[in-house]
Amino acid sequence: MDYYWHGWILVLIGTFFFVFGGLIATYGWSIWGHQLDKKKYLRKGVLSIMLGTVVIALAGLLTTHGWNVVKLGEQRNNLIRAIAQELWMNVLSLESPPIKGEVYYKNENGNWVQRPFPLLKTTALNAVISSGFWNLGNQIEREFLFAITNYEMKIGVANSMFNKYNDTLWRVTDPNERIKWAKRFQGSIPEKDYFKSLDGSQNKLIKLLLSEYKGALPSKEREKLLKISNNNHNSQSPKKRRNAMDIITVRTFFLWCTIINGILLIGSSLVCIFARDWAYPIHNRFFNVSRETVNTMFYSFIALYKMLWMMFNLVPWLALLIIA
Protein backbone atom coordinates (compact mmCIF):
# COMPACT_ATOMS: atom_id res chain seq x y z
CA MET A 1 0.00 0.00 0.00
CA ASP A 2 1.45 3.34 -1.07
CA TYR A 3 0.46 5.65 1.73
CA TYR A 4 0.84 9.07 0.16
CA TRP A 5 -0.68 8.79 -3.32
CA HIS A 6 -3.98 10.19 -2.01
CA GLY A 7 -1.98 13.11 -0.59
CA TRP A 8 -0.78 13.95 -4.09
CA ILE A 9 -4.38 13.73 -5.29
CA LEU A 10 -5.38 16.31 -2.66
CA VAL A 11 -2.48 18.53 -3.73
CA LEU A 12 -3.53 18.29 -7.40
CA ILE A 13 -7.18 18.99 -6.58
CA GLY A 14 -6.20 21.90 -4.34
CA THR A 15 -3.94 23.33 -7.05
CA PHE A 16 -6.70 23.02 -9.63
CA PHE A 17 -9.22 24.83 -7.43
CA PHE A 18 -6.60 27.45 -6.59
CA VAL A 19 -6.25 28.23 -10.29
CA PHE A 20 -10.01 27.99 -10.79
CA GLY A 21 -10.62 30.40 -7.90
CA GLY A 22 -8.07 32.77 -9.37
CA LEU A 23 -9.91 32.74 -12.69
CA ILE A 24 -13.22 33.49 -10.96
CA ALA A 25 -11.68 36.35 -8.99
CA THR A 26 -10.00 37.73 -12.12
CA TYR A 27 -13.31 37.52 -13.97
CA GLY A 28 -14.96 39.45 -11.13
CA TRP A 29 -12.28 42.16 -11.18
CA SER A 30 -12.73 42.45 -14.94
CA ILE A 31 -16.49 43.02 -14.58
CA TRP A 32 -16.04 45.43 -11.69
CA GLY A 33 -13.43 47.43 -13.53
CA HIS A 34 -15.33 47.88 -16.78
CA GLN A 35 -18.97 48.06 -15.71
CA LEU A 36 -18.96 50.38 -12.69
CA ASP A 37 -21.92 52.33 -14.05
CA LYS A 38 -24.23 49.32 -13.95
CA LYS A 39 -25.32 48.02 -10.56
CA LYS A 40 -26.12 44.58 -11.97
CA TYR A 41 -22.60 44.03 -13.23
CA LEU A 42 -21.12 45.62 -10.12
CA ARG A 43 -22.96 43.12 -7.90
CA LYS A 44 -21.95 40.25 -10.18
CA GLY A 45 -18.32 41.34 -10.09
CA VAL A 46 -18.26 41.61 -6.27
CA LEU A 47 -19.86 38.18 -5.90
CA SER A 48 -17.34 36.67 -8.32
CA ILE A 49 -14.44 38.20 -6.39
CA MET A 50 -15.80 36.91 -3.09
CA LEU A 51 -16.44 33.43 -4.52
CA GLY A 52 -12.97 33.30 -6.07
CA THR A 53 -11.36 34.37 -2.79
CA VAL A 54 -13.23 31.68 -0.84
CA VAL A 55 -12.29 29.02 -3.40
CA ILE A 56 -8.63 30.10 -3.26
CA ALA A 57 -8.62 29.94 0.56
CA LEU A 58 -10.22 26.49 0.63
CA ALA A 59 -7.85 25.29 -2.09
CA GLY A 60 -4.90 26.49 -0.02
CA LEU A 61 -6.12 24.53 3.01
CA LEU A 62 -6.71 21.43 0.88
CA THR A 63 -3.26 21.68 -0.71
CA THR A 64 -1.59 22.13 2.68
CA HIS A 65 -3.41 19.12 4.10
CA GLY A 66 -2.47 17.05 1.04
CA TRP A 67 1.18 18.03 1.39
CA ASN A 68 1.15 17.03 5.07
CA VAL A 69 -0.31 13.66 4.07
CA VAL A 70 2.46 13.27 1.47
CA LYS A 71 5.24 13.95 3.99
CA LEU A 72 3.67 11.64 6.58
CA GLY A 73 3.32 8.92 3.94
CA GLU A 74 6.96 9.30 2.93
CA GLN A 75 8.05 8.78 6.53
CA ARG A 76 5.86 5.69 6.85
CA ASN A 77 7.13 4.26 3.57
CA ASN A 78 10.74 4.89 4.60
CA LEU A 79 10.11 2.89 7.77
CA ILE A 80 8.57 0.06 5.75
CA ARG A 81 11.61 0.00 3.44
CA ALA A 82 13.89 -0.05 6.47
CA ILE A 83 11.93 -3.05 7.82
CA ALA A 84 12.41 -4.91 4.52
CA GLN A 85 16.15 -4.16 4.45
CA GLU A 86 16.62 -5.15 8.09
CA LEU A 87 14.66 -8.35 7.51
CA TRP A 88 16.92 -9.20 4.57
CA MET A 89 20.04 -8.56 6.68
CA ASN A 90 18.73 -10.83 9.43
CA VAL A 91 18.01 -13.58 6.93
CA LEU A 92 21.55 -13.29 5.55
CA SER A 93 22.90 -13.54 9.09
CA LEU A 94 20.86 -16.68 9.74
CA GLU A 95 22.09 -18.21 6.45
CA SER A 96 25.78 -17.33 7.00
CA PRO A 97 28.53 -18.84 9.16
CA PRO A 98 28.66 -19.76 11.96
CA ILE A 99 24.91 -20.48 12.01
CA LYS A 100 25.32 -22.35 8.71
CA GLY A 101 28.68 -23.37 7.31
CA GLU A 102 32.04 -23.40 9.06
CA VAL A 103 32.14 -22.27 12.67
CA TYR A 104 35.79 -21.21 12.42
CA TYR A 105 38.14 -19.56 9.94
CA LYS A 106 41.87 -19.15 9.39
CA ASN A 107 43.24 -15.70 10.22
CA GLU A 108 46.19 -13.93 8.63
CA ASN A 109 48.58 -15.55 11.13
CA GLY A 110 47.48 -19.03 10.08
CA ASN A 111 45.58 -19.69 13.31
CA TRP A 112 42.08 -21.16 13.43
CA VAL A 113 39.64 -18.71 14.99
CA GLN A 114 36.10 -19.49 16.08
CA ARG A 115 33.43 -17.24 14.58
CA PRO A 116 31.13 -15.48 17.10
CA PHE A 117 27.42 -16.03 16.63
CA PRO A 118 25.87 -12.78 15.23
CA LEU A 119 23.19 -10.65 16.83
CA LEU A 120 20.11 -9.93 14.70
CA LYS A 121 19.10 -6.32 14.01
CA THR A 122 16.02 -4.67 15.54
CA THR A 123 16.63 -0.93 14.93
CA ALA A 124 13.94 -0.49 12.24
CA LEU A 125 11.51 -2.73 14.14
CA ASN A 126 11.81 -0.58 17.26
CA ALA A 127 11.45 2.59 15.15
CA VAL A 128 8.14 1.36 13.71
CA ILE A 129 6.81 0.35 17.13
CA SER A 130 7.67 3.73 18.68
CA SER A 131 6.76 5.92 15.68
CA GLY A 132 3.02 6.18 16.34
CA PHE A 133 2.31 6.31 12.58
CA TRP A 134 0.09 3.22 12.56
CA ASN A 135 -3.55 3.23 13.58
CA LEU A 136 -4.54 0.39 15.90
CA GLY A 137 -8.16 0.92 14.90
CA ASN A 138 -7.35 -0.34 11.40
CA GLN A 139 -7.25 -4.14 11.20
CA ILE A 140 -4.43 -4.33 8.64
CA GLU A 141 -2.25 -1.84 10.47
CA ARG A 142 -2.96 -3.57 13.79
CA GLU A 143 -1.89 -6.94 12.31
CA PHE A 144 1.24 -5.29 10.92
CA LEU A 145 2.16 -3.81 14.31
CA PHE A 146 1.50 -7.12 16.08
CA ALA A 147 3.66 -8.94 13.49
CA ILE A 148 6.45 -6.39 14.00
CA THR A 149 6.22 -6.73 17.79
CA ASN A 150 6.14 -10.53 17.63
CA TYR A 151 9.14 -10.64 15.28
CA GLU A 152 11.07 -8.23 17.52
CA MET A 153 10.35 -10.37 20.59
CA LYS A 154 11.51 -13.55 18.83
CA ILE A 155 14.69 -11.80 17.72
CA GLY A 156 15.26 -10.71 21.32
CA VAL A 157 15.04 -14.35 22.49
CA ALA A 158 17.38 -15.51 19.71
CA ASN A 159 19.90 -12.75 20.49
CA SER A 160 19.88 -13.65 24.18
CA MET A 161 20.73 -17.27 23.24
CA PHE A 162 23.48 -16.09 20.89
CA ASN A 163 24.95 -13.96 23.68
CA LYS A 164 24.74 -16.87 26.09
CA TYR A 165 26.54 -19.26 23.75
CA ASN A 166 29.16 -16.67 22.82
CA ASP A 167 29.95 -16.14 26.51
CA THR A 168 30.10 -19.90 27.05
CA LEU A 169 32.40 -20.45 24.08
CA TRP A 170 34.83 -17.73 25.07
CA ARG A 171 35.17 -19.25 28.55
CA VAL A 172 36.50 -22.44 26.99
CA THR A 173 40.28 -22.07 26.81
CA ASP A 174 41.03 -25.05 24.57
CA PRO A 175 40.52 -23.96 20.89
CA ASN A 176 39.60 -27.48 19.78
CA GLU A 177 37.04 -27.83 22.55
CA ARG A 178 35.65 -24.41 21.67
CA ILE A 179 35.13 -25.48 18.05
CA LYS A 180 33.34 -28.65 19.25
CA TRP A 181 31.04 -26.53 21.40
CA ALA A 182 30.30 -24.23 18.46
CA LYS A 183 29.52 -27.15 16.14
CA ARG A 184 27.28 -28.70 18.77
CA PHE A 185 25.34 -25.47 19.15
CA GLN A 186 25.15 -25.00 15.39
CA GLY A 187 23.66 -28.45 14.96
CA SER A 188 21.03 -27.80 17.62
CA ILE A 189 19.79 -24.52 16.10
CA PRO A 190 17.25 -26.03 13.64
CA GLU A 191 15.67 -28.03 16.50
CA LYS A 192 15.25 -25.06 18.84
CA ASP A 193 11.65 -23.94 19.31
CA TYR A 194 12.55 -20.25 19.43
CA PHE A 195 14.21 -20.47 16.02
CA LYS A 196 11.19 -22.25 14.57
CA SER A 197 8.91 -19.54 15.97
CA LEU A 198 11.32 -16.91 14.61
CA ASP A 199 10.85 -18.36 11.11
CA GLY A 200 7.06 -18.32 11.58
CA SER A 201 6.92 -14.66 12.68
CA GLN A 202 9.33 -13.73 9.89
CA ASN A 203 7.13 -15.41 7.27
CA LYS A 204 4.02 -13.66 8.59
CA LEU A 205 5.74 -10.28 8.42
CA ILE A 206 6.93 -10.96 4.86
CA LYS A 207 3.40 -11.97 3.84
CA LEU A 208 1.99 -8.69 5.18
CA LEU A 209 4.71 -6.63 3.49
CA LEU A 210 4.08 -8.29 0.12
CA SER A 211 0.28 -8.21 0.32
CA GLU A 212 -0.56 -4.92 2.06
CA TYR A 213 2.56 -2.74 1.84
CA LYS A 214 4.04 -3.68 -1.53
CA GLY A 215 3.40 -0.17 -2.88
CA ALA A 216 5.90 1.25 -0.38
CA LEU A 217 8.66 -1.14 -1.46
CA PRO A 218 10.95 -0.74 -4.49
CA SER A 219 10.98 -3.65 -6.92
CA LYS A 220 14.38 -4.88 -5.67
CA GLU A 221 13.12 -5.08 -2.10
CA ARG A 222 10.02 -6.98 -3.22
CA GLU A 223 12.21 -9.44 -5.13
CA LYS A 224 14.33 -10.02 -2.02
CA LEU A 225 11.25 -10.70 0.09
CA LEU A 226 9.85 -13.05 -2.57
CA LYS A 227 13.18 -14.88 -2.58
CA ILE A 228 13.01 -15.32 1.19
CA SER A 229 9.42 -16.47 0.91
CA ASN A 230 10.35 -18.99 -1.78
CA ASN A 231 13.22 -20.34 0.31
CA ASN A 232 10.79 -20.83 3.17
CA HIS A 233 8.71 -23.19 0.99
CA ASN A 234 5.96 -20.79 0.05
CA SER A 235 2.97 -22.84 -1.04
CA GLN A 236 2.18 -20.54 -3.96
CA SER A 237 3.69 -21.62 -7.26
CA PRO A 238 5.86 -19.20 -9.31
CA LYS A 239 3.23 -19.07 -12.04
CA LYS A 240 0.54 -18.03 -9.58
CA ARG A 241 2.87 -15.42 -8.07
CA ARG A 242 3.54 -13.95 -11.51
CA ASN A 243 -0.20 -13.86 -12.21
CA ALA A 244 -0.79 -12.14 -8.87
CA MET A 245 1.82 -9.51 -9.70
CA ASP A 246 0.27 -9.00 -13.13
CA ILE A 247 -3.14 -8.39 -11.55
CA ILE A 248 -1.61 -5.94 -9.09
CA THR A 249 0.06 -4.01 -11.92
CA VAL A 250 -3.10 -3.85 -14.03
CA ARG A 251 -5.20 -2.88 -11.00
CA THR A 252 -2.78 -0.05 -10.17
CA PHE A 253 -2.93 1.12 -13.79
CA PHE A 254 -6.75 1.31 -13.79
CA LEU A 255 -6.70 2.97 -10.36
CA TRP A 256 -4.56 5.83 -11.64
CA CYS A 257 -6.62 6.08 -14.85
CA THR A 258 -9.75 6.36 -12.69
CA ILE A 259 -8.21 9.04 -10.47
CA ILE A 260 -6.71 11.18 -13.26
CA ASN A 261 -9.74 11.02 -15.53
CA GLY A 262 -12.01 11.59 -12.52
CA ILE A 263 -10.16 14.81 -11.71
CA LEU A 264 -10.38 15.94 -15.33
CA LEU A 265 -14.09 15.08 -15.39
CA ILE A 266 -14.79 17.08 -12.22
CA GLY A 267 -12.75 20.01 -13.47
CA SER A 268 -14.44 20.00 -16.85
CA SER A 269 -17.86 19.83 -15.21
CA LEU A 270 -17.05 22.80 -12.97
CA VAL A 271 -15.84 24.81 -15.94
CA CYS A 272 -18.96 23.98 -17.94
CA ILE A 273 -21.23 24.88 -15.02
CA PHE A 274 -19.59 27.99 -13.57
CA ALA A 275 -17.49 29.39 -16.41
CA ARG A 276 -19.78 29.18 -19.42
CA ASP A 277 -19.93 32.95 -19.76
CA TRP A 278 -16.17 33.06 -19.84
CA ALA A 279 -15.78 30.12 -22.24
CA TYR A 280 -18.52 31.11 -24.72
CA PRO A 281 -16.71 34.15 -26.26
CA ILE A 282 -13.65 31.99 -26.93
CA HIS A 283 -15.67 29.34 -28.79
CA ASN A 284 -17.68 31.98 -30.62
CA ARG A 285 -14.53 33.75 -31.77
CA PHE A 286 -12.97 30.61 -33.24
CA PHE A 287 -16.02 28.67 -34.46
CA ASN A 288 -18.81 31.28 -34.72
CA VAL A 289 -21.39 29.17 -32.84
CA SER A 290 -24.41 30.27 -30.85
CA ARG A 291 -24.73 30.07 -27.08
CA GLU A 292 -27.32 27.28 -27.33
CA THR A 293 -24.93 25.24 -29.48
CA VAL A 294 -22.12 25.73 -26.98
CA ASN A 295 -24.38 24.61 -24.12
CA THR A 296 -25.36 21.49 -26.06
CA MET A 297 -21.70 20.76 -26.82
CA PHE A 298 -20.75 21.15 -23.15
CA TYR A 299 -23.55 18.83 -22.03
CA SER A 300 -22.71 16.20 -24.67
CA PHE A 301 -19.01 16.37 -23.81
CA ILE A 302 -19.59 15.88 -20.07
CA ALA A 303 -22.11 13.07 -20.61
CA LEU A 304 -19.83 11.20 -23.04
CA TYR A 305 -16.75 11.74 -20.85
CA LYS A 306 -18.59 10.40 -17.78
CA MET A 307 -19.86 7.35 -19.65
CA LEU A 308 -16.40 6.49 -21.03
CA TRP A 309 -14.82 7.08 -17.62
CA MET A 310 -17.21 4.69 -15.94
CA MET A 311 -16.97 2.02 -18.65
CA PHE A 312 -13.20 1.99 -19.26
CA ASN A 313 -11.73 3.18 -15.93
CA LEU A 314 -14.00 2.82 -12.91
CA VAL A 315 -15.71 -0.50 -13.71
CA PRO A 316 -12.49 -2.38 -14.70
CA TRP A 317 -10.75 -1.12 -11.54
CA LEU A 318 -13.66 -2.25 -9.33
CA ALA A 319 -13.73 -5.65 -11.06
CA LEU A 320 -9.99 -6.16 -10.51
CA LEU A 321 -10.39 -5.02 -6.93
CA ILE A 322 -13.08 -7.63 -6.35
CA ILE A 323 -11.28 -10.59 -7.96
CA ALA A 324 -7.94 -9.74 -6.31
Whole-number radius of gyration? 31 Å
Taken from the alpha-carbon principal axes, the silhouette is elongated
Number of strands: 2
Instruction: Give the topology string: H per helix, E per strand.
Output: HHEEHHHHHHHH
Q: Which percent bin holds the helix content?
A: over 70%
Strand order of the largest sheet: 1-2
> Largest sheet, if any?
2 strands, antiparallel
Strand content range: under 5%
Q: Tally the helices.
A: 10
The averaged pLDDT comes out at 79
Distance between the termini: 14 Å
Descriptive notes:
- There is one protein chain.
- The protein is mainly alpha-helical.
- It has two domains: 231 residues, no CATH class; 86 residues.
- 80% of the residues lie in helices and 2% in strands.
- It contains ten helices and two strands; from the N terminus they run ααββαααααααα.
- The protein has a two-stranded antiparallel sheet.
- A hairpin with a 5-residue loop joins β1 and β2.
- α2 runs parallel beside α7 and α6 runs antiparallel to α7.
- The radius of gyration is 31 Å and the shape is elongated.
- The two termini are 14 Å apart.
Secondary structure layout plus pairing:
Elements: H1 5-34, H2 39-95, E1 104-106, E2 112-114, H3 123-131, H4 139-171, H5 175-188, H6 193-212, H7 219-231, H8 238-274, H9 276-287, H10 291-323
Antiparallel strand pairs: 1-2
Helix pairs in contact: 1-2, 1-8, 2-3, 2-7, 3-4, 4-6, 6-7, 8-10
